[in-house]
Specification:
This protein is an all-alpha fold and 199 residues long. It is built from eleven helices and no strands. It has helices at 2-22, 25-28, 33-39, 45-54, 59-70, 90-99, 113-130, 135-144, 146-159, 171-190, 192-195. α3 packs across α10 (171-190) and α7 (113-130) packs across α8 (135-144).
Length: 199
Amino acid sequence: MALVGLALAAVVAGGLFVLDRLMPSWYAARLPGWYARRVYPLADAADIRAAATKYRLDPALVAAIIYEESRFRPDTVSHSGAVGLMQVLPSTAEEIARKTGGERFVLGDLSDPRINILYGSNYVRYLLDHFHGSQVMAVAAYNAGLAAVEGWAARTQHSGVAFTLADVAFAETRDYVRDVQRLQQIYRRAYDRELGRAP
């Protein structure tokens, strides 16, 4: 009987997750907390808070990127070689280590959730500063790369209009940015006590 209940709960949660992905972004802010916590896990909250504080980020944004990148699985490695919770490329981590005075970076460091979150958060801060605080551009660059977003931004500058999500040329990256925005709302609301507030 207990196994039947667990199986039914898994089916319901899976169905709700699929349904939630199809809902508009404004719906994310209205998800009941119990449901959000069931479908969207949180781990390493203290490390997320510490990195977000250090780099002046919304902890819910960091959690949203982690969920979108790895579903909070620290052993995730992408086909492009990105590693860990925030899917940090070793070349990016080496550059961050060099700029921040780290002299003994090794690839295995990226499997440590605390270190991975610090490197990923550092890179998010760099992208936000580079794009003058535009979260859309920073999150798009986290997914598609800095050069791609700079190219798209150059086209909008010539036309004299502000960069928007519609200017992102890759459908996959547009979806990524939308998902991170939606997840940021969900994590902010569902895990307010664990994550704390944005600076």
